[in-house]
Amino acid sequence: MKGLSYSSLRAGKKYWLVNYGDRYEFEILEVLSPQDFKLKDVNTLELYLMSELTRYGMGDDFEIRDLG
Predict the structure, then answer these.
(1) What global pTM score does this model have?
(2) Is 54 left (phi over 0), alpha (psi -120 to 50) or beta?
């Protein structure tokens, strides 16, 4: 896994994630467990879970970075 680890992600911060060629930009609203987070898309304001983005696994291109 490139980029940030799950343990360094914080509620209230904005990040981008790439997985299987798809890019997501989101804000973490709540930490649900060490491996799952409640997210809000910064473009569409849609709410979803981190587990929904990784449900099919983590591709070779999986990366999380600060949106900063």
Answers:
(1) 0.91
(2) alpha
